[in-house]
């Protein structure tokens, strides 16, 4: 039994400096997927507005793919990468940006979603080209054959023309020299992504033999987009929740080590919980609505996970009471309510210590479900209110 006293009396400015970049990263990703940035779409938005919504402007401390810390390490998907790995990703991001610029120049489309409106090459033109009686794709007005893959004769010729245009733009813009096969692979990949978007916008055949109307297709596109944005918001909140809790436990543990306070073991225990659970072990927020002026998130219960509600509340409360140290950046404070009736459908994380699983749930699992043999001792924490 450990006694956790004085959770709020913490002051270590030198520790706070180490996590300033992470706070900035959390702020950027929260803004990127905030409800204000990605609002639900209505039919009046139409396909074009879905495709042409302007992206948020990244702050100057961002690279092409994520934030960069002053020490030379970079962050991608919440994971710190070394300088060499980060350099490779930077080159990859630059090459992808060049291919996007190529497609913008060739098709006048800045996003993959804009290919929903792409006019595919006519069947007659494709047949005449296949029988060598027609000119084939027009270099100055390229049209892809969206009805088939990149392997068709027509699309292979389109890719040849795009490769030639890339080589011209490479010299004109001073892009890094690349192998022809590398360029072709990236263009082929981009074509596949654009074709996938085009196919989503095509009417399907119904059971009665008729085809979907333009209204039905538009409604489905709006629903699909809203669902993707909803999932993106949920994933972002989950990742932000993990990074915040990880930062709080690591920072307070560092302070306890420096100051020698008696609750050091408690923060080692709390940090162990957060690090073992990881991003995927954080609870999901099912929905959100306004309760007066306060935003409300209802948490889904996780049947497989042991009950760490008390421990998470301690960490979250310290984030609020330690405002003098943890700068209030990123998402606005929100009320989170536990929804016992709603359960998460996410697959349980394998390989955690046995203490992290609900005992009754674990009994019902197949023998193939792996559990770590690592020992993790649960701790009863009593918070002394002062």
Name a few traits of the molecule.
386 residues, mainly alpha, 11 helices
Could you characterize what this model shows?
The protein contains eleven helices and seven strands. The protein is mainly alpha-helical. The strands form three sheets. Strands 4-5-6 form a three-stranded mixed β-sheet, covered by helices on one side. Helix 10 links the parallel strand 5 and strand 6. Helix 6 crosses helix 7 and helix 8 packs antiparallel against helix 9. The N terminus is likely disordered.
Layout of SSEs?
Blueprint: E1 2-4, H1 13-18, H2 20-32, H3 46-52, E2 74-76, E3 79-81, H4 83-107, H5 123-130, H6 153-173, H7 180-200, H8 214-259, H9 264-277, E4 285-291, E5 294-301, H10 309-321, E6 335-343, H11 359-363, E7 381-383
Parallel strand pairs: 1-7, 5-6
Antiparallel strand pairs: 2-3, 4-5
Helix pairs in contact: 2-8, 4-6, 4-7, 6-7, 8-9, 8-10
Overview in brief:
The protein has 386 residues and is mostly helical. It has helices at residues 13-18, 20-32, 46-52, 83-107, 123-130, 153-173, 180-200, 214-259, 264-277, 309-321, 359-363, and strands spanning 2-4, 74-76, 79-81, 285-291, 294-301, 335-343, 381-383.
Structural class, from secondary structure content?
mainly alpha
Our Rg estimate from Cα atoms comes to 26 Å
What spatial order of strands do you see in the largest sheet? Answer: 4-5-6
> Counting H and I runs of at least 4 residues, what is the number of helices?
11
Based on Cα principal axes, name the global outline: elongated
What percentage of the residues does DSSP assign to strands (E)? Answer: 5-15%
Order of helices and strands: EHHHEEHHHHHHEEHEHE
By DSSP, the count of extended strands is 7
Looking at how many chains there are and whether they match, the oligomeric state comes to single chain
**Quick one: biggest sheet?**
3 strands, mixed
Mean pLDDT: 77
> How much helicity do the residues have?
40-55%
Q: Span between N and C termini?
A: 19 Å
């Amino acid at each position: 039994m450990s006694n956790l006293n004085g959770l709020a009396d913490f002051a270590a400015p030198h520790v706070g400096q180490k996590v300033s970049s992470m706070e900035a990263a959390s702020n950027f990703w929260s803004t990127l997927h905030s409800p204000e940035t990605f609002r639900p779409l209505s039919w009046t938005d139409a396909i074009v507005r879905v495709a042409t919504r302007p992206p948020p402007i990244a702050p100057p401390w961002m690279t092409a793919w994520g934030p960069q810390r002053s020490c030379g390490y970079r962050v991608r998907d919440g994971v710190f990468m070394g300088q060499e790995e980060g350099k490779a990703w930077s080159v990859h991001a630059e090459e992808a940006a060049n291919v996007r610029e190529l497609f913008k120049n060739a098709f006048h489309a800045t996003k993959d979603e804009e290919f929903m409106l792409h006019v595919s090459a006519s069947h007659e033109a494709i047949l005449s080209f296949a029988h060598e009686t027609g000119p084939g794709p027009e270099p100055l007005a390229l049209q892809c054959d969206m009805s088939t893959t990149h392997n068709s004769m027509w699309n292979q010729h389109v890719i040849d023309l795009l490769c030639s245009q890339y080589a011209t733009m490479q010299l004109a813009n001073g892009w890094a020299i690349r192998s022809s096969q590398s360029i072709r692979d990236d263009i082929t990949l981009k074509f596949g992504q654009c074709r996938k978007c085009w196919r989503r916008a095509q009417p399907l055949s119904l059971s009665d033999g008729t085809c979907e109307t333009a209204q039905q297709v538009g409604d489905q596109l709006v629903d699909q987009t809203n669902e993707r944005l909803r999932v993106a918001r949920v994933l972002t909140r989950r990742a932000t929740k993990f990074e915040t809790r990880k930062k709080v436990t690591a920072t307070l543990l560092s302070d306890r080590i420096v100051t020698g306070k008696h609750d050091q073991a408690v923060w080692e225990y709390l940090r162990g919980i957060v690090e073992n659970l990881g991003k995927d072990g954080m609870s999901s927020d099912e929905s959100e609505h306004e309760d007066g002026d306060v935003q409300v998130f209802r948490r889904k219960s996780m049947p497989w996970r042991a009950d760490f509600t008390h421990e998470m509340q301690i960490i979250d409360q310290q984030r609020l009471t330690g405002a003098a140290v943890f700068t209030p950046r990123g998402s606005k404070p929100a009320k989170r309510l536990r929804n016992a009736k709603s359960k998460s459908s996410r697959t349980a994380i394998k390989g955690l210590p046995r203490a992290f699983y609900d005992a009754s749930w674990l009994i019902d699992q197949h023998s193939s479900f792996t559990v770590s043999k690592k020992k993790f001792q649960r701790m009863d924490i009593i918070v002394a209110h002062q």
